[in-house]
Specification:
By secondary structure, the chain is of the alpha+beta class. The chain has a 4-stranded mixed sheet with strand order 1-3-4-2.
Length: about 70
């Protein structure tokens, strides 16, 4: 059986920090696709769950640029 994907709009604010060399990546999830693309690398962001700061993951620079803008 094939999964059916649907589109969803985000309704919340995302918390992210710039990845820089030396960033503590302990506990940060990175997808295999991002690892194959050379991440973590400059421009990538590290996102965290606002309700659980231990839940962190990498957001690639390309995905970030296409889907996010800084909040005022």
């Amino acid at each position: 059986m094939t999964a059916e994907y649907r589109q969803y709009r985000r309704t919340q604010i995302a918390e992210m920090a710039d990845w820089t060399p030396g960033f503590d990546m302990t506990g940060v999830s990175i997808s295999e696709a991002d690892v194959r693309a050379g991440s973590p690398k400059p421009g990538d962001k590290i996102a965290r769950n606002p309700a659980n700061h231990d839940d962190r993951w990498l957001v690639s620079a390309v995905y970030f640029a296409a889907n996010f803008e800084e909040r005022d």
